Amino acid sequence: MARRVLVLGAGIIGLSSAWHALRRGFQVTVVDRGDSPRDGCSFGNAGMVVPSHFIPLAAPGVVWQGLKWMWNPESPFYIRPRLSPSLLAWGWRFWRASSPRRVEAAAPLLRDLNFASRDLYEQWAADADSGPGDFGLERNGLLMLCRTGAGFEEEARFAERANGLGVPARVLDAGAARTMEPGLELDIEGAVFFPKDAHLDPNRLMAGLESRCRAMGAEFHFRTEVTGFGRDGVRLGSVFTSGGELEADQVVLAAGSWSPLVARNLGLGLPMQAGKGYSLTLEKPRKRLSLCSILTEARVAVTPMGGRLRVGGTMELSGLNESVAQSRVRGIVRSFCGYYPDFTESDFSSIEPWRGLRPCTPDGLPYLGRSRKVPNLVVATGHAMMGLSLGPVTGKIAGELLDNAPPSIDIRLLDPQRYG
Ligand SMILES: Cc1cc2nc3c(=O)[nH]c(=O)nc-3n(C[C@H](O)[C@H](O)[C@H](O)COP(=O)(O)OP(=O)(O)OC[C@H]3O[C@@H](n4cnc5c(N)ncnc54)[C@H](O)[C@@H]3O)c2cc1C
Fold first, then answer.
1. In a domain? residue 162
2. Shortest-distance atom of ligand 1 to CA 199
3. Per residue in 261-287, pLDDT tens?
4. Residue 274 Cα, ligand 1 centroid: separation in angstroms?
């Protein structure tokens, strides 16, 4: 069987795919237009591994909540108004996908993918010979912190649903939640604890994965932009890049938010919007946290990473632009200091915000599968808020697809051609 695989994109999805392809004996080349894996969305994210996130982004109530938030410059959600046919079509599909029936169908799949990915992270952490080294995996759960009574009630209902689906969740009153983070003030009404969630340091993970893939024989071409494809009938024969033409027997498309631009060169439509988010990392936080948390009403993620502390959030649909909206960054910091009053806004005054573009599909489910139009292309993208969490299992399934083996999890809902 032809064994040369070209992976387009060196984010968590590309690197995980490369690692699994290498383990299966493929000869792997990774191409990325950035200087290093630090350039994509996979570097400055909140590092959470989240079996608790079995509800896709497109869910009932999200559209109305989003519309309310639109008018507040510090809110966690914004769509830059523009007459864009692709944005309108995406919005229409998102609205259609936000039905209870679609969400119920997606939940068991997202649960299974997240649990499988968590197991793979555990295997990587234990695999000193071929894993990515120490990437700070902490398997001590996640707190969903609620500052309002209404938020707490909603989260408690969600906990019931999670338990019903086999994702353990414990409802904690404010006192019980505070005992989970002793020595820290929490201004909350209550919390839900998800013991099976975990967190890690994405900076270390990405660096470790790249060097492990190199050690296993992968070739990397950074500062190399994919600009087109050479066809061999319906198949891909080669990939044109800013650094010349590269030949491959099979290609994995893992270019994150830019995947639709790359796919367009192949005549493939992958509806997607970039969902910009920001994070700020305190190198020496005034208090140490042990658990990661999500501030539910503010949609802010808080993650301890070794001695550091990362706070991130917002979902801005403003196209493929990487500018920083300071008002939204302020909103993240204010919300964090509201839930964690030990911290003050001035703690963040000299910190440069990081920004990343989450690849968001209209139904909140990734695109993962072999293309029917281009048979030697595997599509692996569109993980929105869960790319870090779902990276290893996506890579594993991409490896299976490259080998023409049946995927270990039923991925029919993730068909990359579900929108035509
Ligand atoms: C603030 C924030 C917090 C987050 N927190 C979490 C979290 O806690 N848990 C979680 O699971 N997820 C989280 N996410 C989401 C997660 O970061 C993304 O889903 C994930 O990083 C997407 O990975 P990717 O490999 O698909 O894309 P990317 O990491 O963006 O990688 C794509 C790569 O493709 C390259 N590329 C693009 N076009 C081309 C081209 N033409 N030629 C060559 N190369 C190209 C880019 O340079 C880039 O390196 C968060 C995101 C944000 C913004």
1. no
2. 8
3. 999 999 999 999 999 999 999 999 999
4. 10
